[in-house]
Amino acid sequence: MEERTLTSRQIDNRDAVRYASGEDTPYTGWVIDYYDSGQLKLKEYYLDGKVHGEWLRYHPDGMLEYRKIFEHGTMKDDLTGSSM
Question: Which H or E run contains 42?
Answer without folding.
Answer: strand 40-47
